[in-house]
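Re: that backbone. Tokens:
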């Protein structure tokens, strides 16, 4: 018989699943939660790269990303990705002034 403080196999699996999901309580994420968040972010962004940024083809990855990361992190990671893409395009194409700047 197991003691009340020792989780059984099913209880342990359930607690690990809950630990991977981000809480909205405002507490700092654990190392396990951060790893899960980063893994779901990487999977979602990889899917977007493969699908030419068509988010409708990456709905399951997006859902997992939203579930496993704090909302502020989702916003930050998304903006960071967009900015990096802009930087890359700017580096490849160079600065193109607006029409009214050319006058």
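Recovered sequence:
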């Amino acid at each position: 018989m197991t003691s009340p403080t020792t989780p059984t196999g099913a209880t342990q699996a359930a607690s690990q699943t809950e630990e991977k999901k981000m809480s909205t309580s405002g507490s700092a994420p654990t190392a396990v939660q951060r790893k899960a968040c980063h893994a779901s972010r990487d999977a979602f962004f990889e899917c977007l790269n493969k699908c030419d940024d068509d988010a409708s083809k990456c709905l399951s990855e997006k859902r997992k990303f939203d579930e496993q990361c704090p909302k502020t992190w989702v916003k930050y990671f998304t903006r960071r990705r967009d900015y990096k893409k802009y930087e890359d395009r700017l580096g490849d194409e160079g600065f193109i002034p607006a029409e009214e700047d050319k006058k």
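The first helix runs from residue 9 to 20. The CA atoms of residues 60 and 71 lie 17 Å apart.
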